[in-house]
């Protein structure tokens, strides 16, 4: 068997390959130009195991390994770096480190999404980018309107508001800029509406997204993004692991008797956190339990922390619904059953408390 530690970059890769039968280690560097990578890996006798560090430009290599029938493991970058005590880093040392982790069976492999999930992620990211560009166009048009005494607020985006800004007497270059921005705004509105329809169609076709949309305040975009970006819900051991994955836990810098908690780590997917936060605002208006929780946190922690706490709670709810394949009504029923706890009476040592449901 051949075990390969591959330090993958955009233009080249450095390899450290071990032949287990002879113990020989071969080190080489492959350029990504041409067919040199395909020719090298296709010529290797099977079985072959390759380990790489997760990077943003790795998907083509993972697809190539799958095409050639080679076992490819993708490792967690932070855990891989923690395994190297020396403060010396270069490509050859990185390849040797990956090889040693593979040989010693300490390689921190991560979960990889399927091609279908990757394609749906691309759809959601594309829509989110177009929405962000539309916001920039709206801000520019709003600035033009305010600078010329036109104060319409949100009604500026109605047909009457657009006609009002189009009729403003402006200098030639300013008028040209306004006309172009208005044309771009119409184009972006049309394209975003098409993307919304496509996202809604995909959400209706997937069972997990349909289950999540039964929760008040959760629409097709949030439901589809939650299912797609979380992937297999069983890979999270509990709600704390889920919140850590989404980056919705406070950073901590504690030592000894001193405890220091910082802001949210924000280590996870930013789009998922954004959608959870937006959906939480609508959910607190429709779900009585979330509304009560939000008001309590609002008094205790303030507006920002209260919104973050509600978004985290909503995300955990959706994860439980995905994990157990249940709708919102069933989730509420289980929650009510869990709250039916027999409280111990003072002076009675034989009081028994009901056990919590494993799903909750």
List the helices and strands and how they pair.
Blueprint: E1 2-8, E2 12-19, E3 24-31, H1 36-42, E4 48-53, H2 59-68, E5 71-75, H3 77-82, H4 91-103, H5 115-147, H6 159-166, H7 172-205, H8 207-212, H9 220-230, H10 239-246, E6 250-252, E7 261-264, H11 270-286, H12 288-301, H13 303-324, H14 328-339
Parallel strand pairs: 1-4, 4-5
Antiparallel strand pairs: 1-2, 2-3, 6-7
- Rg (CA only): 27 Å
Indicate the proportion of strand residues. 5-15%
| Major β-sheet profile | 5 strands, mixed
Number of helical segments with 4 or more residues: 14
Q: What strand order characterises the main sheet?
A: 3-2-1-4-5
Helix-strand string:
EEEHEHEHHHHHHHHEEHHHH
In round numbers, the mean pLDDT is 91
The best one-word shape is: globular
Alpha-carbon distance between the termini? Answer: 45 Å
What is the number of beta strands?
7
Helix/strand structural class: alpha/beta
Low-confidence stretches: 345-360
The residue fraction in helices comes out at 55-70%
């Amino acid at each position: 068997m051949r075990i390969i530690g591959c330090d993958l970059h955009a233009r080249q890769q450095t390899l450290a390959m071990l032949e287990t039968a002879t113990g020989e280690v071969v080190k080489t560097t492959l350029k990504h130009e041409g067919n040199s990578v395909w020719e090298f890996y296709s010529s290797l006798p099977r079985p072959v195991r390759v380990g790489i560090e997760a990077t943003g430009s790795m998907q083509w290599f993972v697809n190539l390994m799958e095409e050639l029938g080679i076992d490819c493991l993708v490792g967690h970058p932070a855990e891989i770096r923690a395994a190297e005590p020396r403060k010396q880093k270069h490509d050859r040392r990185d390849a040797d480190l990956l090889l040693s982790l593979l040989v010693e069976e300490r390689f921190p492999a991560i979960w990889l999404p399927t091609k279908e999930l990757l394609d749906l992620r691309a759809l959601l990211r594309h829509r989110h980018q177009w929405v962000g560009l539309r916001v920039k166009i709206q801000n520019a048009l709003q600035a033009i309107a305010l600078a010329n005494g036109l104060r319409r607020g949100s009604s500026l985006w109605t047909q009457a508001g657009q006609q009002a800004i189009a009729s403003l007497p402006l200098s030639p270059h300013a008028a040209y800029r306004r006309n172009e921005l208005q044309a771009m705004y119409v184009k972006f509105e049309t394209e975003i509406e098409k993307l919304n329809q496509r996202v809604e169609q995909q959400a209706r076709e997937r069972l997990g997204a349909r289950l999540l949309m039964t929760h008040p305040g959760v629409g097709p975009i949030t439901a589809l993004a939650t299912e797609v970006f979380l992937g297999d819900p069983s890979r999270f051991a509990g709600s704390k692991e889920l919140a850590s994955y989404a980056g919705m836990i406070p950073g901590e810098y504690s030592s000894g008797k001193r405890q220091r908690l910082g802001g949210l780590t924000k280590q996870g997917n930013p789009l998922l956190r954004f959608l959870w936060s937006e959906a939480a605002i609508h959910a607190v208006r429709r779900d009585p339990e979330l509304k009560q929780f939000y008001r309590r946190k609002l008094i205790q922690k303030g507006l920002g922390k209260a919104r973050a706490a509600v978004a985290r709670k909503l995300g955990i709810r959706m994860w439980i619904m995905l994990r157990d394949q249940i709708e919102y009504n069933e989730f509420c029923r289980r929650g009510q059953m869990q709250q039916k706890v027999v409280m111990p009476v003072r002076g009675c040592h034989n009081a028994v408390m009901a056990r919590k449901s494993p799903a909750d």
